[in-house]
Amino acid sequence: MGSASDKISGAANQAAGKIKQAAGRATDNERLEAEGKGQEVKGKVQSTAGKAKAATKDAVDRL
Q1: Can you say how many angstroms the Cα of residue 13 is from the centroid of all Cα atoms in its chain?
Q2: Contact present, 53 and 47 (Cβ < 8 Å)
Q3: Sequential DSSP letters for 4-41
Q4: How many CB atoms lie within 10 A of CB 13?
Q5: Which long-range contacts (CB under 8 A, 24 or more apart) does 59-63 make?
Q6: What is the pTM (predicted TM-score) of this model?
Q7: With contact defined as beta carbons under 8 Å apart, do 17 and 36 qualify?
């Protein structure tokens, strides 16, 4: 994936994860809440990877 798509996917996963966590808490569903937390963490990792790719590309372009 490119840096932009990683950032977009990351943001989407973070949002979906937060929604799942809230739904899990509201329905007292621990599995759904844990799944949401996992998805949110996955999104944070994707976003960080996208930012790292963009920074690397910028550095290479400057050379």
Answers
A1: 5
A2: no
A3: HHHHHHHHHHHHHHHHHHHHHHHTT-HHHHHHHHHHHH
A4: 20
A5: none
A6: 0.82
A7: yes
